[in-house]
Amino acid sequence: MIHGFIPPERFFPYLTWQEIEQMPNKQNTVIIQPMGAIEQHGPHLPLVVDSAISQGVLGEAFKGLSSDISAFALPTLYYGKSNEHIGFAGTISLSAQTLLLVLKEMAISIYGAGFRKLILMNSHGGQPQVLDIISRDLHQEYPDFLVFPFFTWGVPHIAKDLMTKQEGEVGIHGGDGETSLMLSLLPDWVKMDLALKEYPLDLGEGSLLSLEGKLPFPWVTKELSKSGVMGDATVATKDKGDRILASLAKGWVQVIRDVYNYQHTYK
Fold this sequence. Notes:
Oligomer: single chain
Number of strands: 6
Shape: globular
CATH class: Alpha Beta
Strand content: 5-15%
């Protein structure tokens, strides 16, 4: 069915319009937009990695979420701003302007239905800035509308505890973490016989520059990687993926609960 990893009772499109119109406590109900991308992740992983991670982690979190917390998932937004991966066949990218408009019009529809709390749950590292911009703009335009631009990997998790120091620092795409997690979520679509190890350029010992992190700079993947991988996929395992998934889901249970309980004072 189209709910995928999301428990059907938590899937927003399965509700009728009457159920939505008559839903109690809509001002605190948490609506969650899973977001990812359709982009290359090396020769061993499918294009759907980021989108699958958002939906998979959210689905697992819903299993641990108390039934008295009202929260629903929207259909996953599979396309994102992925122009850093253009040049690798299969990558589909929206412009920043298009993504901003899609998110704005979706959010206004949710607001118009009476909901006041929306999480943008994003697993793609190429678009957090777009989410930050639209979230603040929507809140400024609708002061009682709280839009939370959250990165799926932003909650406490154990991934780095299971990796080498190098992987934890620069294994940012298609490496151990994502491959292990996909072995947990969609094992039939992971080609471990094609898994490889390729790290991006060395920024130099002691450099404050980063590909992602505190001081990032613009880059495109073809400048950094021949395969599209930036990390070591060869050491990925399903066991690590299961443990990473459980830790991310635990963090997201708390995130959803915290957003549900959060009360904002409007002036």
